[in-house]
Amino acid sequence: MGGGESLQSICYKRGSLRLLDQRKLPLSTLYLDIQDAVQGWEAIRDMVVRGAPAIAIAAALSLSVEVSKLQGFNGTPHDAASFLKNKLDYLVSSRPTAVNLSDAATKLTEIVMNSAATANDASQVFQAYIEAAEIMLEDDVASNKAIGSNGSSFIQNQRKDLPKLSVLTHCNTGSLATAGYGTALGVIRALHADGVLESAYCTETRPFNQGSRLTAFELVHDKIPATLIADSAAAALMKAGRVHAVIVGADRVAANGDTANKIGTYSLALSAKHHGVLFYIAAPLTSVDLSLPSGDEIVIEERSAKELLNTHGGHGEQVAATGINVWNPAFDVTPANLINGIITEKGVITKTGSDHFDIKGFVQNKTMSN
Fold this sequence. Notes:
By secondary structure, the protein is an alpha/beta fold. The protein contains 11 helices and 14 strands. Helix 1 runs antiparallel to helix 2 (52-68) and helix 2 packs parallel to helix 4.
């Protein structure tokens, strides 16, 4: 199971999970065997695997592997469901900003609770969990490809005046950040496949360098015309007229369209607004959190000071002065008024006449139409 010809961060078959250690890229391709939820939690927390969709899938599958190897579980179906719920709650704590993870845990918990109500023994509950986690993996790949197709068609329609488009992206939102294909990078892949991509620009994405290490790696791998820039060069690139659209991913989208994404996204949105460049979010509907009225309620994870003080994500040589204070938020929130549209697997959410997103209405409409 997995994501086709593109690079895969997640390699799974029942009873076995291997995660590409993205900390080693682009110089080394190393896969780590994940045996249980604890190792899954550590892999997510330590950035072995990252990207909101991939985090959710990796967490679900790490528990699937643990369950498949579970021997001698002495308990009722309800005990099995409680065991799984506790494990899922634990996995959610690894990266709290990524709503896909909590969304997946909620859905999986509901499945196992329903299974426990009718199961004859605990093994049936565990089997129901494994099958549900595997379906999530396959659904993520299909969802990503739909995002890519929807985004490419929409952006081409918005810029009919241009035969070729140049797009800027931030962080990594490709097959390394998902089960396969990608969200924002999936849109870029689709534009390239449609023959309308002139160039993709990717930022370094300091301080963990997901852009230079991962996105550049994917773009070269897929032979997509691309250029790497420093984070601080983006405004100058836009001023020079070399960018027609900015497409980024999302870790959480609030009900009003405010969006949490990798730190630096907000700066790109401000610059895009100033220079008249289209700014889009590309994310599955699982990234939408209707329980949060605005981005003010989004919890922003702060990471280790070492990521700024040392090279190689905090594991290399010291480059900053000893004793300096550090503020290292992993994400920032881009207000909805800076966003032109939200590209999802069900279509593109655009603004109403009042210049506001009706995300709740969009979600309800698409849910009812299914």
